[in-house]
Structure formats: C-alpha cells, structure tokens
Amino acid sequence: MNKLISVITPAEKNEQYINTALESLKNQKYTNFEVLILHSDIDSLKRVVDDEYLNDERYRFINTPVGIYVGAARNIGIEEAKGDYIYFLDSDDYISENMLQLMTDNIGEFPIIRGRMKSTDFSTSSVVILPGTNKTKMYSTNRYNLLRTESAINFMISKKFIDSMNLRFSEQFKTYSDLTFMIPLMEIVEVIPYSYEAIYFRRRGNDPINNPSLRQSSLKQLTPDLFGVYNYLRTDELSEEGQKYLDDKLLNFYRKRLVAEFKDDSTIERYFSGLVESINKIDPERLKNKDFILKNDVKVIKSNNISNFRKLSNFNHFLRDIKNGISSKKGRKDLLYKRVFNNMKIKDDLVVFESFQGKSYSDSPKYIYEYMLKHKSNYKFIWVMNERTNIPGNPETVKRFSLKYYYYIARAKYIVSNVRMPNKYIKRKEQSYLQTWHGTPLKRLAGDMSSVHMPGTNAERYKKNFNRETDKWDYLIAPNQYSSDIFRRAFWFNNTMLQTGYPRNDILTNYNDEDSINRLKRTNALPTDKKIILYAPTWRDDEYFKVGKYKFDLSLDLHKMKAQFGDEYIILLRMHYLVASNMDLTGLEGFAYDVSKYSDVSELYLMSDILITDYSSVFFDYANLKRPILFYTYDIEKYQGQLRGFYIDMEKELPGPLLMDNDDVMNAIENIDEVSEKYKDRYNEFYERFCSWDDGRSSEKVVDAVFE
C-alpha cells in the first residue's frame, strides 16, 4: 500500500521540541506522507524550524486563529488534509522510524489502527524489532481499553471514514476534547488492530507550572472539562462499553483527584453542582462492586445536599487519617500533627529555625537568630538539630521529624529556613514563613531547569513539589538584584522579597580583621603561620548511588600539591552537604583537612586566603573578601550542556580563571599575585554587581522587616 498519510501536528507552545517531532517523520521508512504543522504565528515558528523542513513540500505550515484549543487546531488540519489517512502527532512527541510503515502494513481493510505508546523524558529513543516480533492484536469488545490515555494520538484513521461520520473534535473544551472525537468513532467500529512495535514516544511534560501539558492542567481546568465532556457524551444511546468507560472515568477522577482536593472542604462548593449533574447520570450497576465509602459518597452527592456531603467528606478524611495513624509510629506522628497540633493556637512569640534540614547550626538562620538573641530576647527560640550541638543562648533543640518537631512547626508564629520544608508541612494562615535560601544562583533553579537529573524524581514531580513549597513562603531574602530577578521567576515567587543582602555574610564585613581570623584558626587547631586554600566544589546532579546518597570524585592531586605548597599552605576540603562518601586523606596529615561537616562556611571563608571552587555558589559570598578565586572546571562542557546549565557566562564574567586540570590549578597558586592582577578589573565589576548589598547589617534589616 502506498496511500498518502496526513500527519496533523499542532505546535502551539511547544516550539522548542518541534524539530525533534519533524526529524522523527523525516526518518520514516514510509515516505508517502504530508505534515500539517499548525500554529497561530507561522512566521515566528519558521524561525525555529530547521531549513530542511521549510524546503520540503511535504511539510505544510498552516496559520490558525490565536487562542484556540488543540481540538480546534486539529479540526483545521482535518479540513486541510489531502491524505487517505489521518495521523495525530503532538509537537513535543516523536515516533519510531518504522511507525508509519507498520501502520500501513497492518491496517488492512480496517478504518483505524492503533500503535503502542511509551513515555519518555528524552528527545531520542531507539527501537529494535527482532524477526517474528512484529505482532498485531485485535481489540473488539475491549476496544475502549485503547482509550485509557483519553487521547487520539497514535491512531491512524481513514480520512474517508472520518468524513462519512462528519467527525470533528469539540472546540469547547481545552482538555478531554479527544474523547468527543474518539468515542463516536469507537461506537461505530467493531474491531481495531493494535501494532505492538509501532511505537509513539510521548514526552513527559517537564514544566507543569509555566507550560503544563494538557494532562498537567490544573484541577480548575480539568474538572469542569471532564464534567462537560461526560455530560455531552453520556447518553442512553451509547453502547454498554461506552457507558462503562465514561462512568469509570468519572468515578476514578472523583476518587483520585477530587477526594484529595476536598481535604480542604472550602473547595467543595466550586465543583459540587457539576459533580451532582454528572454523578446522577452514572448507571447504579456500576457501583455494585465498589467499596462502601464510594457508594455512600455517590448516594449523598445524588441527594444534592452540599452540607451533608461536606460533613461526610470531612468524616471520611478523618477516618483515613485515623487508619493511617494507627498503622505505624510515623502515621501516629502525622495524625497528631494534622489533627491535633494544627488545631492548637499559634504561639506569637515562638520562632523555629532550621538550616540545611537540621544538619547544622549555620547559614543565614544562624545569624538572624544571633541578632535576635541580642535584640529580640522576648521571643522563644527552637532550633531543629539532628545531632546534639552547643548553640548560644541554649535554645530548645528538636530533631527533624520528631513529635516535638511537628508540634513546634504547627504552633510557631515564625518559621525560618534556608532550604525547603518537608512536603507534609502545612502552612497555617497565621504563620510567617521566612525563606533565606542558601546562595546566589549560578546553576539554573527550579522553574528555569529544562530537565532534572536527581534520584527518585523527574522534572514534573520536582517542579510541582517545589512550587507547592514556594507558595508557602511569605518572605524571601535576595543577596543582590541579579538573584532577586531570578528568584521571582524560577521560584514563582509573588510575596515579599527582602533585598537586604545575606545575613550569613555579615561576618565577612564585621569580623574581617587579623585578630578575629587568628582566633578562628586557633579554635579549629589550624596553624596561624600558614596561608589557607579552601576547596569547595559543588555536587553533580547525576552522580549518586541511590535516593539520598550522593558521590563525588576528588579531582585534585593533593599529594602533588602538598609536595609543592606544604611549607606555605594548608588546604581545607569542603564538600557539598549532599555528598555522602568519605575522603581518604592518608599521608596528607598536617596539609589537608576535611571540613565538610564544619557548620559555618562563612567562618571558613574568613580563614582562607584562596578559594578554589567550580559551579558552587560559594564564590559569590567569598567575593565580599576580595581575595583570589580559582575555578577548577574540569568537566564544564558536561555540566553546562547536560546538567543544569548556568545563568552567567563563566568565561566572561567570573572574577578568576577557568582551570581544566590539576597542573593549571597548581600553576595559578604558584603565581597567585599575577592572577589577581590580571582579574582585578573584572573582580571589581563582579563585586559591585553581586556583593554591594552585603554591608554587615543584613540580619538587622531582615529582623526589622519580619518580626513584630
């Protein structure tokens, strides 16, 4: 068969992926196709499309009205299509090179065929078909199983068949509109072939906040759309299979999405009337094998009594919490936190401090606390500390995730943290949450990350969790205008930005004198007659053993450095707090010191004469001292290209040289005065841009702004 296939590809809001989709079509073994690319601004789209597609007459670019939904765009594509078959390909997805060939080989006399779908986070995937593995299965009474994703993609459908039914997508709904096209089709066809090896790669949406896929749309969008599509399609004329499909779709949506939403019973009113209308259409037979709670929910919903439903919903959530609470020690803590502590009165004089998830007494929370200890002594202070630590003022300390921890984060008027709180933290409306954050960003943050390479998560989950966290922040500290601008965007932050500089940097201004520095050296048993090199690299997002366990390969030749510099220098090794592996410093005694667990990196800055780093944000703070900084960036191409990327041009804007191997580092140390002179002007510019807000009074400014 050599019939023309019309591939319909709406491209709105997915311009960055369009070339990947088009490349997968270019690579098809079956070449008799046309591609209809639909967009509201074709001229701007063509500027990002590779020339080879602009010069290939098979690729047709069609203007669409601004603001239409994807269903309306596909309808335009159907009208413009010249092919014998229609195939829908979303512009952020791509297909295996044998896709169209397998579809045409196996459709036979049937009007429709479906291929297999796989989810992916990547832009390329390969498929190997072994001899004898090209299997085709026929779906008949179970054909609605092919609509589990509620999508028309990866179906190839006869254009003549579509026209004979006058079949089009509803243009009223943003989401679920595919069902208005596919269910009438499913009702007519009796058998649908399914090709196992015709694989469609469906990209997981990686920006659910700024550019969500239709599947990632908000509940405020999904819920009325599902109700509307359900009510439109759910008629008595529909087959038993079709009715069951829609009823199950509605019930599953209610159980998986709305029940969780109704934990906050103020949301019930938004959806209740639509829920009543749709639930009343469900066949009572559909509930026979369902559990008692769902049956009871449906009964009360059908009664159209919102007050009774609210009481029932709250009671059901209470029962679930009780059930989870009696199952484990962790469950009991969660139950007490949610049901008891969060209903107790807020203590207006209570402040909870947490730094790096309770790992240390450090960073900006430390300096805010010490300022308050002197100037706001009427408050009660709680520190989250996982290990016993001596803290000035002798505040009460609690372990993270202990029962006391939950008690205090529920009752404290003020929460001060420099990293994210646990996902289960419930921000009460009377609370003030001060997020200090922990560095001027060099690497891309949260909403600016195009991909996520961390154990136990992906871009969608990571960004959703991060967004839920930042929604709780009342105040966020910015160390400079550059950070303020990035934080607003990358953290989706719309509350009060405190443009004060970092409290943790107050010490770099107020104690930058010889007596203070030597006192610190003696306290830490470091020689006062030698200069200090501080090596503080970042962690790599893709280097980990398992969830929560990270690794790091030390790339400096410390033995060689000791031989050359041991009489004049010592080196302090400060690894990122997420790194779990230990370093072997055998033979380096008296020269190399592991200070990874040293609580206050600002004190390490004060003691150090040279900083060696890479992509860690430590150099932004260290620059307050105007001392030499060397950048050991041996893997810069990998880090910038494959991991998080950078906000600034490292070659042009950093206040020191980029060094690619150990010899480069040693040569720079040997000639540190010449290096400093070479980068003097750039260093001064860097200081003005990133350090000018740090004036030694940041803690004071923050406390005055936040605490009554």
Automatic annotation (TrEMBL):
Keywords linked to the UniProt accession: Cell membrane, Membrane, Teichoic acid biosynthesis, Transferase
One example of a Gene Ontology biological process annotation: teichoic acid biosynthetic process
Membrane spanning stretches: none
Family annotation (SUPFAM superfamilies): Nucleotide-diphospho-sugar transferases (SSF53448), UDP-Glycosyltransferase/glycogen phosphorylase (SSF53756)
Domain of life per record: Bacteria
UniProt xrefs under CDD domains: Glyco_tranf_GTA_type
One GO MF term: CDP-glycerol glycerophosphotransferase activity
CC per GO annotation: plasma membrane
Localization, UniProt: Cell membrane
Pfam families the record matches: Glycos_transf_2, Glyphos_transf
Primary localization class, coarse: membrane
Domain Glycosyltransferase 2-like as annotated: residue spans: 6-109
Membrane topology: Peripheral membrane protein
Family: Belongs to the CDP-glycerol glycerophosphotransferase family.
Protein name: CDP-glycerol:poly(Glycerophosphate) glycerophosphotransferase
Gene: tagF_1
